[in-house]
Amino acid sequence: MRFFSGLSSFYKAHRLLINLSICLPPLALLSLSIGSTHIGVMALWQAVTGVGDPTAGLILGLLRFPRLCVGLAVGAILGMAGAVNQGYLRNPLADPSLLGTSNAAALGAVLAFYFGFSARFPICLPLFAFVGALAGLLPLLWFVRRHNDPQSLILGGVAIAAFSGACISLALNLSPNPFAAMEIMTWLMGAITDRSWNHVLLLIAPFFLSLFLFRRTAPALDALILGDDVAASLGFDLVRLRWLIMAALAIGVGGAVAVSGAIGFVGLIVPHILRPFTRQLPSELLWPSAMGGALLVTLADILVRLLPTQNELQLGVVTAFIGVPIFFRQAIKGVGAMKSL
Amino acid sequence: MIHLAAEDILFKTGSHQAAITLCGSCSFGGGILTGMIGANGAGKTTFLKILAGLQSPERGQVILNDRCLADLSPQQKAEAIAYLPQDRRIQWPVKARDLIALGRLRYGRSLNRLNQQDSHAIAYAVETTKTGDLLDRSMDSLSGGEQARILLARALAVDAPILLADEPLAALDPGYAMQIMEVLSQEAQKGRIVIVALHDLTLAARYCDRLLLWHRGEIVADATPETVLTQDRLAHCYHIKAISQNYRGHFLVTPYDRVNS
Which helix (H) or strand (E) holds B116? Predict the structure, then answer.
Protein backbone atom coordinates (compact mmCIF):
# COMPACT_ATOMS: atom_id res chain seq x y z
CA MET A 1 0.00 0.00 0.00
CA ARG A 2 1.25 3.47 -0.73
CA PHE A 3 0.38 5.57 2.26
CA PHE A 4 1.52 8.91 1.20
CA SER A 5 0.82 8.96 -2.47
CA GLY A 6 3.72 11.37 -2.66
CA LEU A 7 4.14 11.38 -6.37
CA SER A 8 0.53 11.72 -7.44
CA SER A 9 -0.26 14.38 -4.86
CA PHE A 10 2.93 16.20 -5.82
CA TYR A 11 1.58 16.34 -9.35
CA LYS A 12 -1.83 17.31 -8.08
CA ALA A 13 -0.45 20.23 -6.12
CA HIS A 14 1.62 21.36 -9.07
CA ARG A 15 -1.20 20.81 -11.54
CA LEU A 16 -3.03 23.65 -9.81
CA LEU A 17 -0.02 25.91 -10.09
CA ILE A 18 0.51 24.90 -13.73
CA ASN A 19 -3.13 25.51 -14.63
CA LEU A 20 -2.98 28.93 -13.05
CA SER A 21 0.29 29.71 -14.83
CA ILE A 22 -1.28 28.88 -18.20
CA CYS A 23 -3.78 31.71 -17.65
CA LEU A 24 -0.98 34.18 -17.09
CA PRO A 25 0.37 34.88 -20.63
CA PRO A 26 -3.02 35.61 -22.25
CA LEU A 27 -4.04 37.79 -19.32
CA ALA A 28 -0.73 39.65 -19.47
CA LEU A 29 -1.14 40.21 -23.22
CA LEU A 30 -4.65 41.51 -22.65
CA SER A 31 -3.39 43.80 -19.92
CA LEU A 32 -0.71 45.20 -22.26
CA SER A 33 -3.07 45.79 -25.16
CA ILE A 34 -6.13 47.21 -23.43
CA GLY A 35 -6.36 50.83 -22.38
CA SER A 36 -7.29 54.27 -23.66
CA THR A 37 -5.03 53.48 -26.63
CA HIS A 38 -5.67 50.00 -27.95
CA ILE A 39 -2.53 48.14 -28.98
CA GLY A 40 -3.14 44.99 -31.00
CA VAL A 41 -1.05 41.85 -30.80
CA MET A 42 0.80 42.72 -34.03
CA ALA A 43 1.51 46.24 -32.85
CA LEU A 44 2.66 44.79 -29.52
CA TRP A 45 5.13 42.54 -31.28
CA GLN A 46 6.37 45.37 -33.46
CA ALA A 47 6.77 47.67 -30.47
CA VAL A 48 8.73 45.05 -28.57
CA THR A 49 11.05 44.40 -31.52
CA GLY A 50 11.33 48.16 -32.04
CA VAL A 51 10.06 48.46 -35.58
CA GLY A 52 6.49 49.71 -35.08
CA ASP A 53 4.80 52.91 -34.07
CA PRO A 54 7.08 54.74 -31.57
CA THR A 55 4.05 56.05 -29.62
CA ALA A 56 2.86 52.52 -28.98
CA GLY A 57 6.40 51.63 -27.89
CA LEU A 58 6.43 54.52 -25.42
CA ILE A 59 3.02 53.66 -24.00
CA LEU A 60 4.09 50.07 -23.52
CA GLY A 61 7.52 50.83 -22.13
CA LEU A 62 6.59 53.68 -19.82
CA LEU A 63 3.04 52.80 -18.78
CA ARG A 64 1.72 49.35 -19.55
CA PHE A 65 4.74 47.18 -18.73
CA PRO A 66 5.44 48.74 -15.32
CA ARG A 67 1.73 48.64 -14.57
CA LEU A 68 1.59 44.94 -15.40
CA CYS A 69 4.70 44.18 -13.33
CA VAL A 70 3.40 46.11 -10.33
CA GLY A 71 0.05 44.32 -10.56
CA LEU A 72 1.64 40.88 -10.74
CA ALA A 73 4.06 41.52 -7.88
CA VAL A 74 1.47 43.13 -5.59
CA GLY A 75 -1.03 40.37 -6.32
CA ALA A 76 1.51 37.64 -5.65
CA ILE A 77 2.59 39.19 -2.35
CA LEU A 78 -0.98 39.71 -1.15
CA GLY A 79 -2.07 36.22 -2.23
CA MET A 80 0.77 34.46 -0.49
CA ALA A 81 0.54 36.68 2.59
CA GLY A 82 -3.13 35.72 2.83
CA ALA A 83 -2.39 32.01 2.52
CA VAL A 84 0.34 32.20 5.17
CA ASN A 85 -1.83 34.20 7.55
CA GLN A 86 -4.76 31.81 7.20
CA GLY A 87 -2.48 28.87 7.90
CA TYR A 88 -0.66 30.50 10.78
CA LEU A 89 -3.70 31.94 12.51
CA ARG A 90 -5.68 28.78 11.68
CA ASN A 91 -8.49 31.01 10.57
CA PRO A 92 -10.09 30.94 7.12
CA LEU A 93 -11.07 34.60 7.54
CA ALA A 94 -7.52 35.83 8.02
CA ASP A 95 -5.99 38.14 5.43
CA PRO A 96 -2.94 40.38 5.32
CA SER A 97 -4.87 43.22 6.91
CA LEU A 98 -5.90 41.17 9.94
CA LEU A 99 -2.71 41.96 11.84
CA GLY A 100 -3.12 45.64 11.08
CA THR A 101 -0.26 45.68 8.60
CA SER A 102 -2.24 47.13 5.68
CA ASN A 103 -3.81 49.88 7.74
CA ALA A 104 -0.56 50.81 9.41
CA ALA A 105 1.16 51.02 6.02
CA ALA A 106 -1.73 53.13 4.70
CA LEU A 107 -1.38 55.44 7.70
CA GLY A 108 2.29 55.93 6.87
CA ALA A 109 1.36 56.87 3.31
CA VAL A 110 -1.40 59.20 4.47
CA LEU A 111 1.06 61.01 6.72
CA ALA A 112 3.31 61.51 3.70
CA PHE A 113 0.34 63.04 1.88
CA TYR A 114 -0.84 65.08 4.82
CA PHE A 115 2.44 66.80 5.56
CA GLY A 116 3.09 67.34 1.88
CA PHE A 117 6.24 65.21 1.71
CA SER A 118 4.81 63.16 -1.13
CA ALA A 119 4.26 66.25 -3.27
CA ARG A 120 7.86 67.39 -2.87
CA PHE A 121 9.59 63.98 -2.88
CA PRO A 122 7.46 61.26 -4.55
CA ILE A 123 9.71 58.54 -3.09
CA CYS A 124 8.51 59.54 0.39
CA LEU A 125 5.11 57.96 -0.21
CA PRO A 126 6.28 54.33 -0.48
CA LEU A 127 8.97 54.86 2.15
CA PHE A 128 6.48 56.18 4.67
CA ALA A 129 4.11 53.29 3.94
CA PHE A 130 6.93 50.88 4.52
CA VAL A 131 7.92 52.47 7.80
CA GLY A 132 4.24 52.52 8.77
CA ALA A 133 3.95 48.76 8.24
CA LEU A 134 7.01 48.14 10.41
CA ALA A 135 5.82 50.57 13.09
CA GLY A 136 2.44 48.83 13.16
CA LEU A 137 4.07 45.48 13.93
CA LEU A 138 6.27 46.77 16.78
CA PRO A 139 3.50 47.09 19.41
CA LEU A 140 2.25 43.71 18.23
CA LEU A 141 5.63 42.14 18.93
CA TRP A 142 5.58 43.58 22.41
CA PHE A 143 2.01 42.36 22.86
CA VAL A 144 2.66 38.75 21.82
CA ARG A 145 5.54 38.41 24.24
CA ARG A 146 2.86 38.22 26.90
CA HIS A 147 0.15 36.37 25.01
CA ASN A 148 1.58 33.89 22.59
CA ASP A 149 -1.41 32.45 20.77
CA PRO A 150 -3.16 33.21 17.47
CA GLN A 151 -6.32 34.62 19.05
CA SER A 152 -4.39 37.22 21.06
CA LEU A 153 -2.37 38.08 17.98
CA ILE A 154 -5.60 38.72 16.04
CA LEU A 155 -6.98 40.89 18.85
CA GLY A 156 -3.75 42.90 18.97
CA GLY A 157 -3.81 43.23 15.18
CA VAL A 158 -7.41 44.41 15.19
CA ALA A 159 -6.49 47.06 17.78
CA ILE A 160 -3.64 48.32 15.60
CA ALA A 161 -5.83 48.30 12.49
CA ALA A 162 -8.48 50.29 14.34
CA PHE A 163 -5.95 52.77 15.69
CA SER A 164 -4.40 53.28 12.24
CA GLY A 165 -7.88 53.66 10.76
CA ALA A 166 -8.75 56.27 13.37
CA CYS A 167 -5.55 58.18 12.61
CA ILE A 168 -6.37 58.12 8.88
CA SER A 169 -9.85 59.46 9.63
CA LEU A 170 -8.29 62.15 11.79
CA ALA A 171 -6.00 63.16 8.95
CA LEU A 172 -8.98 63.36 6.58
CA ASN A 173 -10.95 65.26 9.19
CA LEU A 174 -8.22 67.85 9.75
CA SER A 175 -7.28 68.00 6.11
CA PRO A 176 -6.68 71.67 5.17
CA ASN A 177 -8.55 71.53 1.88
CA PRO A 178 -11.01 69.17 0.14
CA PHE A 179 -8.53 68.41 -2.63
CA ALA A 180 -5.94 67.03 -0.24
CA ALA A 181 -8.64 64.91 1.40
CA MET A 182 -9.78 63.71 -2.00
CA GLU A 183 -6.22 62.80 -2.96
CA ILE A 184 -5.85 60.72 0.19
CA MET A 185 -9.22 59.04 -0.31
CA THR A 186 -8.42 58.09 -3.88
CA TRP A 187 -5.04 56.72 -2.93
CA LEU A 188 -6.56 54.66 -0.13
CA MET A 189 -8.84 52.90 -2.58
CA GLY A 190 -5.81 51.30 -4.18
CA ALA A 191 -4.68 51.54 -7.77
CA ILE A 192 -1.81 50.63 -10.03
CA THR A 193 -2.52 53.26 -12.68
CA ASP A 194 0.45 55.30 -13.93
CA ARG A 195 3.03 53.31 -12.04
CA SER A 196 6.56 53.74 -13.34
CA TRP A 197 9.66 51.57 -13.44
CA ASN A 198 10.69 53.29 -10.19
CA HIS A 199 7.74 51.64 -8.51
CA VAL A 200 8.76 48.30 -10.00
CA LEU A 201 12.30 48.77 -8.70
CA LEU A 202 10.90 49.61 -5.29
CA LEU A 203 8.91 46.38 -5.30
CA ILE A 204 11.72 44.04 -6.33
CA ALA A 205 13.27 43.62 -2.88
CA PRO A 206 9.97 43.28 -0.95
CA PHE A 207 8.68 40.84 -3.57
CA PHE A 208 11.57 38.38 -3.50
CA LEU A 209 12.32 38.76 0.19
CA SER A 210 8.75 38.30 1.41
CA LEU A 211 8.03 35.36 -0.90
CA PHE A 212 11.26 33.71 0.19
CA LEU A 213 10.44 34.22 3.88
CA PHE A 214 6.82 33.14 3.48
CA ARG A 215 7.92 29.99 1.68
CA ARG A 216 10.14 29.01 4.59
CA THR A 217 7.14 28.85 6.91
CA ALA A 218 5.43 26.07 4.90
CA PRO A 219 6.30 22.94 6.97
CA ALA A 220 5.53 24.74 10.22
CA LEU A 221 2.12 25.79 8.90
CA ASP A 222 1.33 22.12 8.24
CA ALA A 223 2.46 21.13 11.72
CA LEU A 224 0.21 23.82 13.21
CA ILE A 225 -2.87 21.94 11.93
CA LEU A 226 -2.54 19.91 15.12
CA GLY A 227 -2.02 22.92 17.38
CA ASP A 228 0.90 24.73 19.00
CA ASP A 229 1.91 21.95 21.38
CA VAL A 230 2.19 19.27 18.72
CA ALA A 231 4.05 21.61 16.37
CA ALA A 232 6.50 22.37 19.18
CA SER A 233 6.82 18.66 20.03
CA LEU A 234 7.76 18.02 16.39
CA GLY A 235 10.69 20.38 16.81
CA PHE A 236 9.29 23.59 15.32
CA ASP A 237 10.39 26.80 16.98
CA LEU A 238 7.16 28.79 17.18
CA VAL A 239 8.80 31.98 18.40
CA ARG A 240 11.09 31.97 15.38
CA LEU A 241 8.10 31.23 13.14
CA ARG A 242 6.24 34.25 14.50
CA TRP A 243 9.20 36.52 13.84
CA LEU A 244 9.57 35.12 10.36
CA ILE A 245 5.93 35.71 9.48
CA MET A 246 5.79 39.20 10.95
CA ALA A 247 8.98 40.25 9.19
CA ALA A 248 7.70 38.86 5.89
CA LEU A 249 4.37 40.63 6.37
CA ALA A 250 5.96 43.98 7.12
CA ILE A 251 8.30 43.71 4.15
CA GLY A 252 5.80 42.28 1.68
CA VAL A 253 2.56 44.02 2.59
CA GLY A 254 4.42 47.23 3.44
CA GLY A 255 5.98 47.20 -0.02
CA ALA A 256 2.69 46.32 -1.74
CA VAL A 257 0.67 49.00 0.03
CA ALA A 258 3.45 51.50 -0.56
CA VAL A 259 3.22 51.06 -4.31
CA SER A 260 -0.45 50.33 -4.87
CA GLY A 261 -2.41 51.58 -1.88
CA ALA A 262 -4.78 49.35 0.04
CA ILE A 263 -6.05 46.66 -2.35
CA GLY A 264 -8.42 44.62 -0.26
CA PHE A 265 -9.85 41.12 -0.52
CA VAL A 266 -7.03 39.63 -2.62
CA GLY A 267 -5.30 37.97 0.32
CA LEU A 268 -8.60 36.79 1.76
CA ILE A 269 -10.31 35.49 -1.33
CA VAL A 270 -7.53 33.86 -3.33
CA PRO A 271 -6.55 31.18 -0.77
CA HIS A 272 -10.26 30.60 -0.21
CA ILE A 273 -10.96 29.89 -3.86
CA LEU A 274 -7.92 27.67 -4.29
CA ARG A 275 -8.11 25.64 -1.09
CA PRO A 276 -10.65 23.07 -2.38
CA PHE A 277 -8.23 22.24 -5.20
CA THR A 278 -5.51 21.22 -2.72
CA ARG A 279 -5.23 18.52 -0.07
CA GLN A 280 -6.18 21.25 2.44
CA LEU A 281 -2.60 21.49 3.67
CA PRO A 282 -1.58 25.13 4.25
CA SER A 283 1.86 24.51 2.72
CA GLU A 284 0.35 23.49 -0.61
CA LEU A 285 -1.54 26.71 -0.91
CA LEU A 286 1.37 29.15 -0.85
CA TRP A 287 2.61 29.20 -4.45
CA PRO A 288 -0.83 28.74 -6.03
CA SER A 289 -2.09 31.67 -3.91
CA ALA A 290 0.81 33.83 -5.10
CA MET A 291 -0.03 33.00 -8.71
CA GLY A 292 -3.78 33.38 -8.10
CA GLY A 293 -3.25 36.78 -6.47
CA ALA A 294 -1.16 37.95 -9.42
CA LEU A 295 -3.91 36.80 -11.81
CA LEU A 296 -6.72 38.38 -9.80
CA VAL A 297 -5.05 41.78 -9.56
CA THR A 298 -4.19 41.74 -13.28
CA LEU A 299 -7.76 40.75 -14.14
CA ALA A 300 -9.21 43.48 -11.92
CA ASP A 301 -6.82 45.96 -13.50
CA ILE A 302 -8.11 44.98 -16.96
CA LEU A 303 -11.70 45.43 -15.79
CA VAL A 304 -10.82 48.87 -14.44
CA ARG A 305 -9.87 49.90 -17.95
CA LEU A 306 -12.77 48.17 -19.70
CA LEU A 307 -15.67 49.40 -17.61
CA PRO A 308 -17.15 52.51 -19.20
CA THR A 309 -17.29 54.79 -16.17
CA GLN A 310 -16.76 58.52 -16.09
CA ASN A 311 -13.82 58.40 -13.71
CA GLU A 312 -11.58 55.40 -13.99
CA LEU A 313 -12.51 52.96 -11.24
CA GLN A 314 -9.94 52.37 -8.53
CA LEU A 315 -8.51 48.85 -8.42
CA GLY A 316 -9.35 48.27 -4.76
CA VAL A 317 -13.00 48.98 -5.50
CA VAL A 318 -13.07 46.37 -8.27
CA THR A 319 -11.29 43.66 -6.24
CA ALA A 320 -13.80 44.23 -3.45
CA PHE A 321 -16.71 43.87 -5.87
CA ILE A 322 -15.20 40.68 -7.33
CA GLY A 323 -14.29 39.38 -3.89
CA VAL A 324 -17.51 39.91 -1.97
CA PRO A 325 -19.82 37.65 -4.04
CA ILE A 326 -17.24 34.85 -4.14
CA PHE A 327 -16.70 35.21 -0.44
CA PHE A 328 -20.42 35.20 0.22
CA ARG A 329 -20.86 32.06 -1.84
CA GLN A 330 -18.02 30.39 0.06
CA ALA A 331 -19.58 31.48 3.32
CA ILE A 332 -22.92 29.87 2.45
CA LYS A 333 -21.40 26.73 0.95
CA GLY A 334 -18.56 26.28 3.36
CA VAL A 335 -20.19 26.70 6.74
CA GLY A 336 -18.43 23.44 7.56
CA ALA A 337 -15.04 24.92 6.86
CA MET A 338 -15.84 27.92 9.02
CA LYS A 339 -17.40 26.19 11.97
CA SER A 340 -14.11 25.99 13.79
CA LEU A 341 -13.95 29.76 14.13
CA MET B 1 17.53 1.28 27.32
CA ILE B 2 15.66 4.55 27.31
CA HIS B 3 15.31 6.38 30.59
CA LEU B 4 13.33 9.46 31.54
CA ALA B 5 13.25 11.12 34.94
CA ALA B 6 11.76 14.24 36.48
CA GLU B 7 13.65 15.67 39.44
CA ASP B 8 12.46 18.12 42.09
CA ILE B 9 9.94 19.80 39.82
CA LEU B 10 8.22 23.00 40.89
CA PHE B 11 5.75 24.64 38.52
CA LYS B 12 3.65 27.60 39.52
CA THR B 13 0.18 28.10 38.13
CA GLY B 14 0.13 29.28 34.54
CA SER B 15 -2.94 30.18 32.51
CA HIS B 16 -5.21 27.10 32.31
CA GLN B 17 -2.63 25.09 34.20
CA ALA B 18 -2.33 23.54 37.60
CA ALA B 19 0.65 24.18 39.86
CA ILE B 20 2.67 21.08 40.61
CA THR B 21 5.32 20.15 43.13
CA LEU B 22 7.44 17.03 42.87
CA CYS B 23 9.92 16.30 45.63
CA GLY B 24 12.64 13.82 44.79
CA SER B 25 12.83 11.95 41.54
CA CYS B 26 10.20 10.24 39.47
CA SER B 27 11.71 8.02 36.81
CA PHE B 28 10.36 6.01 33.92
CA GLY B 29 11.89 3.07 32.10
CA GLY B 30 10.91 1.35 28.89
CA GLY B 31 8.54 -1.61 28.71
CA ILE B 32 6.01 -0.30 31.19
CA LEU B 33 2.67 1.38 30.56
CA THR B 34 2.35 4.15 33.13
CA GLY B 35 -1.04 5.70 33.80
CA MET B 36 -1.48 9.07 35.44
CA ILE B 37 -4.75 9.48 37.28
CA GLY B 38 -6.22 12.16 39.49
CA ALA B 39 -9.13 14.56 39.55
CA ASN B 40 -9.42 17.44 37.07
CA GLY B 41 -6.79 20.09 37.73
CA ALA B 42 -4.60 17.74 39.78
CA GLY B 43 -1.57 18.38 37.56
CA LYS B 44 -1.54 15.50 35.06
CA THR B 45 -1.50 17.65 31.92
CA THR B 46 1.06 20.06 33.33
CA PHE B 47 3.36 17.20 34.26
CA LEU B 48 3.04 15.63 30.80
CA LYS B 49 3.90 18.97 29.18
CA ILE B 50 6.94 19.34 31.42
CA LEU B 51 8.06 15.80 30.54
CA ALA B 52 7.56 16.64 26.85
CA GLY B 53 9.68 19.78 27.22
CA LEU B 54 6.77 22.01 26.22
CA GLN B 55 6.73 23.78 29.58
CA SER B 56 9.76 24.70 31.63
CA PRO B 57 9.39 24.27 35.35
CA GLU B 58 10.48 27.07 37.70
CA ARG B 59 12.73 24.63 39.48
CA GLY B 60 13.99 21.14 38.79
CA GLN B 61 14.72 19.33 35.58
CA VAL B 62 13.78 16.50 33.30
CA ILE B 63 16.58 14.06 32.53
CA LEU B 64 16.55 12.04 29.33
CA ASN B 65 19.25 9.36 29.21
CA ASP B 66 21.66 11.30 31.47
CA ARG B 67 21.13 14.55 29.62
CA CYS B 68 19.04 17.47 30.71
CA LEU B 69 15.99 17.83 28.44
CA ALA B 70 16.35 21.60 28.40
CA ASP B 71 19.84 21.26 26.87
CA LEU B 72 18.66 19.20 23.91
CA SER B 73 17.96 20.82 20.56
CA PRO B 74 14.29 20.93 19.42
CA GLN B 75 15.23 18.34 16.79
CA GLN B 76 16.68 15.94 19.37
CA LYS B 77 13.64 16.38 21.60
CA ALA B 78 11.32 15.76 18.65
CA GLU B 79 13.13 12.55 17.81
CA ALA B 80 12.91 11.28 21.38
CA ILE B 81 9.40 12.27 22.43
CA ALA B 82 6.01 11.99 20.73
CA TYR B 83 3.24 14.01 22.34
CA LEU B 84 -0.48 13.42 21.89
CA PRO B 85 -2.41 16.37 23.35
CA GLN B 86 -5.83 16.36 24.91
CA ASP B 87 -7.00 19.01 22.43
CA ARG B 88 -8.26 17.16 19.36
CA ARG B 89 -9.21 20.16 17.24
CA ILE B 90 -7.98 19.98 13.69
CA GLN B 91 -8.14 23.18 11.71
CA TRP B 92 -8.43 22.15 8.08
CA PRO B 93 -10.36 19.13 6.76
CA VAL B 94 -7.21 17.28 5.69
CA LYS B 95 -7.21 13.65 4.67
CA ALA B 96 -6.41 11.08 7.36
CA ARG B 97 -3.28 9.91 5.50
CA ASP B 98 -1.88 13.44 5.38
CA LEU B 99 -2.64 13.97 9.04
CA ILE B 100 -0.76 10.80 10.01
CA ALA B 101 2.15 11.89 7.80
CA LEU B 102 2.42 15.11 9.85
CA GLY B 103 4.11 12.95 12.50
CA ARG B 104 7.08 12.75 10.12
CA LEU B 105 7.53 16.50 9.79
CA ARG B 106 10.79 17.86 11.01
CA TYR B 107 11.96 21.39 10.79
CA GLY B 108 12.54 22.47 7.24
CA ARG B 109 11.19 19.32 5.67
CA SER B 110 7.93 19.28 3.79
CA LEU B 111 5.36 16.53 3.42
CA ASN B 112 6.33 16.10 -0.21
CA ARG B 113 9.84 14.98 0.72
CA LEU B 114 9.16 11.90 2.80
CA ASN B 115 11.62 9.05 2.42
CA GLN B 116 11.55 5.27 2.79
CA GLN B 117 12.05 5.41 6.54
CA ASP B 118 9.13 7.82 6.84
CA SER B 119 6.81 5.58 4.88
CA HIS B 120 7.78 2.58 7.02
CA ALA B 121 6.98 4.52 10.18
CA ILE B 122 3.65 5.62 8.73
CA ALA B 123 2.80 2.09 7.59
CA TYR B 124 3.60 0.77 11.05
CA ALA B 125 1.41 3.42 12.71
CA VAL B 126 -1.49 2.67 10.37
CA GLU B 127 -1.22 -1.07 10.90
CA THR B 128 -0.97 -0.77 14.69
CA THR B 129 -4.03 1.47 14.95
CA LYS B 130 -5.97 -0.45 12.27
CA THR B 131 -6.77 2.72 10.39
CA GLY B 132 -5.97 1.45 6.88
CA ASP B 133 -9.54 1.82 5.66
CA LEU B 134 -9.84 5.43 6.89
CA LEU B 135 -6.84 6.88 5.08
CA ASP B 136 -8.69 8.46 2.19
CA ARG B 137 -11.41 10.00 4.34
CA SER B 138 -11.19 13.63 5.35
CA MET B 139 -10.82 14.22 9.08
CA ASP B 140 -14.11 16.10 9.45
CA SER B 141 -16.04 13.12 8.05
CA LEU B 142 -14.70 10.75 10.72
CA SER B 143 -16.40 9.94 14.01
CA GLY B 144 -14.78 10.94 17.30
CA GLY B 145 -13.45 7.43 17.81
CA GLU B 146 -11.97 7.27 14.32
CA GLN B 147 -10.38 10.70 14.73
CA ALA B 148 -8.82 9.60 18.02
CA ARG B 149 -7.28 6.56 16.30
CA ILE B 150 -5.90 8.70 13.47
CA LEU B 151 -4.40 11.14 15.97
CA LEU B 152 -2.83 8.25 17.86
CA ALA B 153 -1.44 6.97 14.56
CA ARG B 154 0.03 10.45 13.98
CA ALA B 155 1.82 10.26 17.33
CA LEU B 156 3.05 6.71 16.64
CA ALA B 157 4.32 7.79 13.22
CA VAL B 158 6.89 9.97 15.00
CA ASP B 159 8.48 6.63 15.93
CA ALA B 160 9.91 8.08 19.14
CA PRO B 161 11.01 5.90 22.07
CA ILE B 162 8.82 7.96 24.39
CA LEU B 163 5.07 8.44 23.90
CA LEU B 164 3.18 10.88 26.12
CA ALA B 165 -0.60 10.77 25.66
CA ASP B 166 -2.94 13.20 27.40
CA GLU B 167 -6.39 11.71 27.87
CA PRO B 168 -6.54 9.86 24.56
CA LEU B 169 -9.79 8.20 25.66
CA ALA B 170 -11.85 11.35 26.29
CA ALA B 171 -15.34 10.97 24.78
CA LEU B 172 -14.72 7.52 23.32
CA ASP B 173 -17.07 4.57 23.60
CA PRO B 174 -15.75 1.50 25.47
CA GLY B 175 -14.74 -0.43 22.35
CA TYR B 176 -12.59 2.35 20.92
CA ALA B 177 -11.21 3.19 24.36
CA MET B 178 -10.08 -0.40 24.94
CA GLN B 179 -8.59 -0.59 21.48
CA ILE B 180 -6.48 2.49 22.15
CA MET B 181 -5.38 1.14 25.53
CA GLU B 182 -4.37 -2.11 23.83
CA VAL B 183 -2.25 -0.20 21.31
CA LEU B 184 -0.57 1.81 24.07
CA SER B 185 0.07 -1.38 26.04
CA GLN B 186 1.61 -3.09 22.98
CA GLU B 187 3.85 -0.08 22.36
CA ALA B 188 5.06 -0.22 25.96
CA GLN B 189 5.79 -3.94 25.64
CA LYS B 190 8.02 -3.15 22.68
CA GLY B 191 10.32 -1.25 25.04
CA ARG B 192 8.97 2.28 24.71
CA ILE B 193 8.19 4.56 27.63
CA VAL B 194 4.45 5.14 27.41
CA ILE B 195 2.84 7.55 29.85
CA VAL B 196 -0.86 8.21 29.55
CA ALA B 197 -3.14 10.54 31.52
CA LEU B 198 -6.50 8.91 32.14
CA HIS B 199 -9.86 9.65 33.72
CA ASP B 200 -11.31 6.18 33.38
CA LEU B 201 -10.22 4.31 36.52
CA THR B 202 -11.52 0.98 35.28
CA LEU B 203 -9.41 1.10 32.12
CA ALA B 204 -6.44 2.52 34.01
CA ALA B 205 -6.57 -0.39 36.48
CA ARG B 206 -7.15 -2.93 33.73
CA TYR B 207 -4.33 -1.93 31.35
CA CYS B 208 -1.63 0.05 33.16
CA ASP B 209 1.38 -1.60 34.78
CA ARG B 210 2.01 1.36 37.03
CA LEU B 211 -0.19 4.23 38.21
CA LEU B 212 0.75 7.68 39.42
CA LEU B 213 -2.05 9.21 41.46
CA TRP B 214 -2.06 13.01 41.42
CA HIS B 215 -3.79 15.09 44.02
CA ARG B 216 -3.56 18.89 44.19
CA GLY B 217 -0.32 19.06 42.25
CA GLU B 218 1.47 16.26 44.03
CA ILE B 219 1.97 12.56 43.43
CA VAL B 220 0.34 10.83 46.39
CA ALA B 221 0.85 7.27 45.20
CA ASP B 222 3.12 5.58 42.69
CA ALA B 223 2.85 1.81 42.36
CA THR B 224 0.87 -0.97 40.72
CA PRO B 225 -2.87 -0.38 40.26
CA GLU B 226 -3.73 -2.84 43.06
CA THR B 227 -1.60 -0.89 45.50
CA VAL B 228 -2.60 2.60 44.39
CA LEU B 229 -6.35 2.23 44.04
CA THR B 230 -7.34 1.67 47.66
CA GLN B 231 -10.70 2.69 49.09
CA ASP B 232 -9.04 5.35 51.23
CA ARG B 233 -7.21 7.02 48.33
CA LEU B 234 -10.27 6.96 46.06
CA ALA B 235 -12.30 8.56 48.82
CA HIS B 236 -9.59 11.13 49.49
CA CYS B 237 -8.67 12.11 45.90
CA TYR B 238 -11.88 11.49 43.97
CA HIS B 239 -14.49 11.49 46.74
CA ILE B 240 -15.87 8.20 45.47
CA LYS B 241 -16.47 4.67 46.63
CA ALA B 242 -15.55 1.83 44.31
CA ILE B 243 -15.68 -1.94 44.09
CA SER B 244 -12.29 -3.55 43.55
CA GLN B 245 -12.17 -7.13 42.38
CA ASN B 246 -10.17 -9.62 40.45
CA TYR B 247 -11.97 -11.04 37.47
CA ARG B 248 -10.18 -13.70 35.38
CA GLY B 249 -6.81 -12.31 36.35
CA HIS B 250 -7.70 -8.66 35.66
CA PHE B 251 -7.82 -6.11 38.43
CA LEU B 252 -11.06 -4.18 38.06
CA VAL B 253 -12.20 -1.02 39.77
CA THR B 254 -15.80 0.13 39.39
CA PRO B 255 -16.93 3.36 41.06
CA TYR B 256 -20.45 3.14 42.39
CA ASP B 257 -21.11 6.08 44.70
CA ARG B 258 -19.87 9.46 45.90
CA VAL B 259 -18.49 10.04 49.34
CA ASN B 260 -20.45 12.80 51.04
CA SER B 261 -18.00 15.23 52.49
Answer: helix B116-129
